[in-house]
Design a protein that fits this description.
The protein is of the alpha/beta class. 30% of the residues lie in helices and 25% in strands. The chain has a domain of 99 residues: GMP Synthetase, Chain A, domain 3 (2-Layer Sandwich), CATH 3.30.300.30. Helix 10 links the parallel strand 12 and strand 13.
């Protein structure tokens, strides 16, 4: 398991699926019921409220989730989408489980989205209800939610405990493992968000394999501030804990002081976050790793620097584990505890069970040789059904043989380790957030002073990458970065706003008339980000 290799007889960059490991043939609701029986008195969820830690055991979590599911069934029916728009909260987790029990579909919205982005998500998924909380700054989203939704269909998420009080408990509907559970929004190069549609089976098993790789069990306490509107939070963390009976420690948002405090107060055995979070922890004055009993540190979303891995290995005596996946297929490859720091720093590990992997020529789709760079393609039971209500986008991403074309450039070595070399879709990764230039370009081209522009990612010590924009302006106009950022903020989430700007008279072009973005990136070497 987790040791697949290419066939040396062919020399092809192809790894056959290892189907010997049994997957979970149950719904998420059935998994919660099973854990409530097996580990009923164990903590399932811990969070801080008004300065004090609150806890739900697995038995209590099931009881509350069934009550919330009954409340949902009074207002919606199985198969309906339920929008959740908020920072992380215990209420979000309860609604996620309640949807699983009620046969409804979670559609998590990013709390940083603009109205334009929310309207697209609303129109695509047509949620029956929208439960909104606060953004990461603590600002209520309720007024905006009411403006977006029909009257009586928007509710304040953080009032959930009061909302469901007195609800008559209902019999839960029959739910199948093949039923849709999650619509995970993921940006696309066309500038429009797509919704990866994941079933109970796909979501639960992707999370399960993540925990199996890390050797989690029911004694673990996992502190991870991953946003619940990402698969890393809603699936890998929430369902990863459920699948093996671990305890999930929730934070509203990442804060280094609070993170270290929660580690101490909850007795965390597993921690995780994107590299920027882990670096911030190491730099904090209260950093005393000897105070903890950490078994592993999970990371992903960006390359993890080898010096950071070595430091965490040394100070915790625990491995750093990296995962490669995406919204369309959450679990593709992973490192495991016995892998060296070099493996975690330089590769994305090896394939998970049931995953077939190959490296394909971008031009013709042919399987390449070991060591050659091409597009990473994966086929497994965990690959999404497709993009919700977007068949054309689905057909471009999943081929006729069922292989997901990830858009990532990679190579396989003879031992089966995957190395990522870049991205065919020009994605910018800022602190674990995937940002696609085409969406930003489409919006900024609406500015009256802009003639043409190119958005690229440039290196950033804190975030890994940050967004940069080079623009050709109309005659007589001058570039005002502050004004351009203010314009961008009207239609883009804050993490998508360019922070480095450059005015050009013209762009370097290819023979076919396309902007040479590699050359544009080089122009920002002497341009500091704001």
């Amino acid at each position: 398991m987790f040791d697949g290799k290419p066939d040396p007889a062919t020399g092809l960059a192809h790894i056959a699926a290892d189907t010997g490991f049994p997957l979970l043939d149950m719904t998420i609701g059935d998994c919660l019921r099973e854990k409530a029986v097996r580990f009923g008195t164990r903590d399932a969820l811990i969070w801080r409220h008004d300065g004090e830690l609150r806890r739900l055991t697995y038995a209590q979590l099931l009881d509350r989730a069934e009550l919330v599911a009954s409340w949902l069934l009074e207002r919606a029916k199985p198969g309906d989408r339920i929008g959740i728009w908020s920072r992380n909260s215990a209420e979000w987790v309860l609604v996620e489980y309640a949807c699983a029990l009620a046969g409804m579909v979670v559609a998590g919205w990013n709390a940083a989205w603009s109205e334009r982005e929310c309207e697209h998500a609303r129109d695509l998924t047509e949620p029956a209800l929208l439960l909104s909380g606060y953004d990461t700054r603590g600002v209520s989203l309720m007024e905006r939610a009411e403006a977006l939704m029909p009257s009586g269909t928007a509710f304040h998420l953080e009032e959930l405990f009061a909302l469901v009080e007195g609800t008559e408990r209902r019999k839960m509907p029959e739910v199948a493992v093949a039923d849709l559970f999650l619509i995970q929004f993921t940006s696309g190069t066309t500038g429009r968000s797509k919704g990866a549609a994941l079933t109970h089976f796909q979501a639960l098993n992707a999370a399960y394999l993540r925990s199996v790789a890390a050797e989690f069990d029911e004694t673990d306490v996992w502190l991870n501030a991953a946003p619940l509107n990402h698969v890393g939070g809603a699936l890998s963390v929430v369902l990863g804990c459920l699948a093996v009976g671990s305890c999930y420690v929730l934070m509203h948002r990442f804060d280094t002081t609070e993170y270290l405090r929660m580690m101490r107060e909850t007795g965390a055995t597993r921690i995780g976050g994107v590299p920027t979070m882990l670096i911030a922890l190491c730099e904090h004055p209260d950093w005393r790793p000897q105070d903890f009993r950490i078994r592993s540190i999970g990371s992903g979303g960006a390359a993890v620097p080898k010096p950071l891995i070595e430091r965490l290995n040394r100070e915790f005596g625990a491995p750093v584990l990296v995962v490669f996946g995406q919204s369309e297929s959450v679990m593709i490859t992973t490192s495991v505890p016995i892998d060296s720091p070099e493996i975690a720093a330089e590769t994305s590990g090896r394939t998970a069970p049931h995953v077939e992997l190959k490296i394909c020529d971008v031009a013709n789709g042919a399987t390449l040789k070991v060591g050659e760079v091409g597009e990473v393609c994966a086929r497994s039971p965990m690959v999404m059904n497709g993009y919700f209500r977007q068949p054309e986008a689905t057909a471009k991403t999943i081929d006729g043989d069922g292989f997901l074309h990830t858009g990532d450039l990679g190579s396989l070595d003879a031992e089966g380790y995957l190395r990522i070399h870049g991205r065919t879709r020009e994605v910018i990764i800022r602190g674990g957030e995937n940002i696609y230039p085409a969406e930003i370009e489409d919006y900024l081209l609406e500015h009256p002073d802009v003639v043409s522009l190119a958005v690229v990612g440039v290196p950033d010590e804190r975030w890994g990458q940050t967004v940069a924009c080079a623009a050709v302006l109309r005659e007589g106009a001058s570039l005002d970065p502050a004004a351009m950022e203010a314009f961008a903020a009207q239609g883009l989430a804050h993490f998508k706003i360019p922070r480095a700007w450059l005015a050009l008279e013209n762009f370097p072009m290819t023979a076919s008339g396309k902007i040479r973005k590699v050359e544009v990136e080089g122009m920002f070497a002497a341009v500091p980000a704001r």
